[in-house]
Every structure is written in C-alpha cells, then in structure tokens.
Amino acid sequence: MSARFTIVRHGNTFAPGETPRRVGLRTDIPLVESGREQARALGRTFAGRSFDRILTSPLLRTRETAELIAAALSATPPIETADWLAEVDHGPDENQPEAAVLARIGEEALAAWERDATVPPGWAIDVPARLAAWRQLYTESSGNILLVTSNGAARFALTTDPALREQASALPTLKLRTGAWGEIAATEAGLRLEAWDRRP
User: Fold this and answer.
1) What is the pLDDT of residues 76-99, one digit of tens each?
2) Which are the contacts of 38, defined by CB distance < 8 A and separation ≥ 6?
C-alpha cells in the first residue's frame, strides 16, 4: 500500500502592519486577503493533482484555506474535518504577541519547540494523541491525501515515526510558514520526507 501526504499550513491571518500573535486552538480567526491569495496560489500549484481525500482542522483559517485550494482543482472529494489537525493550545501564551511569549518561556524553550517539538512549559498539548493520529493516518491510508492544518500541529507529522524524525533532523526547523506545504510518501520501504516548507 502506498500513499502521499501533502501537508499545508493555512494562509496569513494578520494584515501588513498588524502585530502577529501566537494564535492557537482557542483563537479562531479568518484569513486576511494576503492569506486568501496564498491559498489561491496553493490551489494553482496543486491544480494538476488529484486528491483522494482532503482533511482540514475545524478552525476557520484552515477550512478557508482548504476550500480555496479545492476550488482550483478539477475534481475534489468532500472536505473532511479532523479535530486532531487543529492548532495546539498555547496555554498562557494564547493570542499573545511573540515578544511576550519569548519573554515568558525564553529563547531556548522556543528553539526546542521549533527544532524537535519539545512542548514549552504551560502549553496544553496531548502529544501521544497527536502522534497516534498521524501514525494511524500513515498506516491506514492509500492514495493522495491533502491535509490543511496549522504550524504547531503540522510538526507532529515529522516526529511520529523514527525514520521521519531522522530525516527531519536535517531541516533547519520543523516549522511550516503560512501558505507553505510539505510532502511525505509512504512506500513499502517506509516513510520518506520529500519536501518541507515549500511555497508556490
């Protein structure tokens, strides 16, 4: 059984000049126009592909991104909602500007989160459940699957499997930028990281 997983981070949620905040599970905000354009660009990039499933988190920003991508495809399956793709809960740092987050948890804690998904103190993330969901997806899926999620949630796609974790160790960060995607192939030889943090 073979499968290909295209993992997309939603588009921008902050307009130019607006102070970005660390929005997570408890902050459900829409895309801004630049984020909608990022989603349309992803749709143009994927226009020649055929997806057997499209999964998105229940958050508005990911659902909008998935819908705009799907609108550019010639044929699409129904968009499915998966709770385990929702962004993580940043605890006391939820909806706070990045400077405030850095002041509370420190540079090393933030670097460890970006480097190997070590959860910063105070954040509420059920890591075993996240890893189990990705593992189930990898082992039970076939065909081409598009997943639209958030930066915090996407990194667990890389840390659930030892081979993937080793491949991801060569990346400068586990982060996906807004409007970027990665690809993982499941083959008889195992899981292979083929791309990460690419933008149209």
Assistant:
1) 999 999 999 999 999 999 999 999
2) 11, 12, 65, 178, 179, 199, 200
Report residue 1's pLDDT band, with 50, 70 and 90 as the boundaries. Answer: low
- Residue in this structure with the two tokens 């699409």, named with its chain if needed: 76
d(CA 74, CA 199): 21
Ordered by start, the domain boundaries in the chain are 3-198
Q: Does the predicted model carry a pTM greater than 0.90?
A: yes
By CB atoms closer than 10 A (0-12, 13-18, 19+), residue 196 is buried
Q: How far is CA 124 from CA 22, 80, 121, in A?
A: 14, 25, 9
- What is the amino acid identity at position 176? L
The chain-wide mean pLDDT, for the chain, equals: 97
Tell me, which fold does domain 3-198 have in CATH?
Rossmann fold (3.40.50)
Is the CB of residue 89 less than 8 Å from the CB of residue 124?
yes
Residue-wise pLDDT tens digits, 55-70: 999 999 999 999 999 9
| Percentages of the chain per state (helix, strand, coil), in multiples of 5 | 40, 20, 40
Backbone angles phi, psi at 185, to 5 degrees: -105, 135
Contact present, 123 and 89 (Cβ < 8 Å): yes
Is residue 8 classed as helix, strand or coil in its secondary structure? strand
